[in-house]
Amino acid sequence: MVALSRRGFICGSAAVAALAAVPAVAATDIKTLSNGKTELNLAANKSLANVGGIVELSIKKYGKVAVVRTSKSAQGFSVINLFCPHAGVIVKQNSAGWVCPAPPGHGSEFGLNGALKVGPATSPLRPIKFTTTSKAVTIA
Ligand code: FES
Questions:
Q1: What is the pLDDT of residues 80-101, one digit of tens each?
Q2: Residue 74, CB half-sphere, CA atoms under 13 Å: how many?
Q3: How far is the C-alpha of 116 from the C-alpha of 124, rounded, in Å?
Q4: Whole-number Å distance between alpha carbons of 126 and 84
Q5: Which one of 64, 108, 110 would you pick to mutate in the ligand 1 pocket, going by the greatest count of ligand atoms within 8 A of its CB?
Q6: 3-class secondary-structure state, position 39
Q7: Structure pTM?
Q8: Which atom of ligand 1 is nearest to 88's Cα?
Q9: Which CA distances in Å does 111 have to 19, 22, 30, 116?
Q10: Pocket of ligand 1 from Cβ distances under 6 Å
Q11: Domains, the chain, ranges and CATH?
Q12: Mean pLDDT of the chain, nearest integer
């Protein structure tokens, strides 16, 4: 199992900046574990096999989140909360990443991994802790 470090997140962020966006699909084969974590089976979510692949899911603890494949490495994922940090509107995917739709949003733009590109938001989409194996992404 591999835990995502801050360094790993930042390195993944740089790699994602160059990714072409692939339309997100709804996640399948999601399990809530006895410890409250959420496990996403990678074999069932084939879009995550390719760098740039994205799945979206809702988790009671966080609301709507996205899992983004950022590299081919075992820890090559980002998990981000899709609520805009400016005022909580759910962001939508566009060709470059995520945009906060107006109205009711105010047009903030984020990279695929959630990095802030254009305000008025002043912080990135919230990264969510996770671990990975060759078979699953487990969201804390
Ligand atoms: S709520 Fe997203 S920019 Fe204001």
A1: 999 999 999 999 999 889 999 9
A2: 9
A3: 4
A4: 8
A5: 108
A6: strand
A7: 0.84
A8: 1
A9: 9, 13, 25, 7
A10: 84, 86-87, 89, 100, 105-108, 120-121
A11: 2-139 (2.102.10.10)
A12: 88
